[in-house]
Design goal:
five-stranded mixed beta sheet; 9% helix
Length: 106
């Protein structure tokens, strides 16, 4: 039997904005599992969970649509910009930086 703490996220659900009130709080609902939360963004983030739904699922949403969930991926390195700044995906640049700061595989 597997310990529940060792389980990875089971699913990815997209939350839908149901509406907002005069206080600026927004109600978000997950049509997949029923999770419902009220969120206030300003002045300090607050979230009130009204219905838990599937607590193992990753939930995301957007007021502007276009939410796409998936596992993180690493993008390939691109040519270094003319400014000399290294691209964050440039493994050689990271290796040089680590070596320059005494953290390389010497």
């Amino acid at each position: 039997m597997t310990d529940e703490r060792d389980q990875h996220v089971a699913d990815e659900h997209v939350m839908v904005l149901e509406g907002d009130g005069p206080s600026g709080a927004e109600e978000w609902h997950c049509p997949t599992c029923g999770r419902t939360v009220v969120v206030r963004w300003e002045p300090d983030f607050e979230q009130l969970v009204l219905v838990e739904g599937d607590t193992r699922a990753a939930h995301a949403g957007s007021r502007h649509g276009g939410v796409r969930l998936g596992p993180p991926t690493r993008r390939p390195a691109t040519a270094r910009p003319a400014t000399g700044a290294a691209d964050v995906g440039d493994d050689d640049a990271w290796a040089r930086w680590l070596a320059d700061h005494g953290l390389g595989d010497d």
